[in-house]
Amino acid sequence: MRRFLYFAAMSLAINAHAQNQPSLKDAYKSCFVVGAALAPAQFTGQDVKETQLVEAQFNSATPENVLKWALIHPRPDTYEFSMADKYVEFGEQNHMFIIGHNLVWHSQTPRWVFEDDTGNPVSRDILLDRMHDHIMKVVGRYKGRIKGWDVVNEALNEDGTLRQSPWMKIIGDDYIEQAFRFAHETDPDAQLYYNDYSLENEAKRKGALELVRKLKAKGVAITGVGLQDHVSLDWPTADQIDKTIKEFGKLGVKVMITELDVDVLPSVTRSADVSLNVASDSRLNPYPNDLPEAVQQQLTNRYRELFRTYAKHCGLVTRVTFWGVTDKDSWKNDWPVKGRTNYPLLFDRNAQPKPAFDAVIQLAPK
Ligand code: G3I
Asked: What is the 3-state secondary structure (H, E, C) of 212-230?
């Protein structure tokens, strides 16, 4: 009993603290919703401190992993919805704009999806059937509750051509429009997005613009483009981001910043290709205990510059989502080098706001 009272008191204290801070969602409510990618500990209440932080700060949520094909549909006849159900319930209880991530991707998709019983590639028709079945089941289950879907994720190479993924090789380049059609057919009211990284680089941006143009010309119901924005301290420039937002805006689609974080560690790559894995080296992990003041300042300046750029496009940019909640659980600690200590988000390892948080709040439109 005493133990229970202690935890209840702790929880109230943390809650009061989280609620006394200004919030990102209130600060930017006239401009865009502000979200975070959530792991199970943050939407099941297992991590009390982070769950309360999420509730206090964000009005949109994206599942970091639980809706990906490998987790939700690991075997042909098995759908495992329990974690995704909890994610959606959490989002509803907190009146969040709930995102589904993602439906069609080359990564975190089991091999069986592309193969027959003998391990050979399936035919175009079979793969289209599997895609259709998956989208109908997953989008259908959360129809009217998940409001926006990353329908196709990371379909482009850096030079703007279509990635030779199994989807592309087996179905052909119309796999993208087919995925959008299946999603729209299942939930006509859901917003549907194309989501990718490095779209600020000219060649890749051109490829994505061309893709969106073609989809729109064919009458495909694409609502928006997600710029992931896994950025570093100096790339991409504010001008590159500004230009990218404007160019997609000219095509009549909304723009969302879908996976924001700022890498402060020595650069290994500008890609966000999850298959990369670089050997560890202490020179690549220079701040294992704390972030030096000068770098903290650079991070603050960078976040100020990013939010100034996003807020310039209020209404066209409808959402800014961070890829994680605190530095402790960011994927950036393990990618592309495992076991580093990175500082990419607005909340530190104790869920406390960093100077960059204050800068972002101060910048918000009054
Ligand atoms: O589910 C297994 C679990 O059973 C096992 O015990 C554990 C042991 O390592 O691994 C678990 O899988 C991990 C999975 O996350 C779920 O936690 C994978 O190893 C790990 O590679 C995977 O990483 C995710 C990555 O996507 C891989 O696709 C990251 O958490 C997630 O942040 C990252 O997110 C992607 C976006 O979806 C798309 N854009 C890029 C972004 C960053 O890579």
From this structure: HHHHHHCCCCCCEEEECCE
What pLDDT, in 10s, does the model give residues 108-167? 999 999 999 999 999 999 999 999 999 999 999 999 999 999 999 999 999 999 999 999
- The residue whose CA has the least distance to atom 25 of ligand 1 is 274
| DSSP state letters, 283-326 | GG---SS---HHHHHHHHHHHHHHHHHHHTTBTTEEEEEESSSB
Residue nearest to atom 15 of ligand 1 (CA): 65
Q: Is 238 exposed, middle or buried (0-12, 13-18, 19+ CB in 10 A)?
A: middle
* Ligand 1 center–CA 39 separation, angstroms: 10
Distance set, CA 26 to CA 51, 302, 307, 356 (Å): 18, 21, 15, 17
Predicted confidence (pLDDT) per residue in 41-92, tens digit: 999 999 999 999 999 999 999 999 999 999 999 999 999 999 999 999 999 9
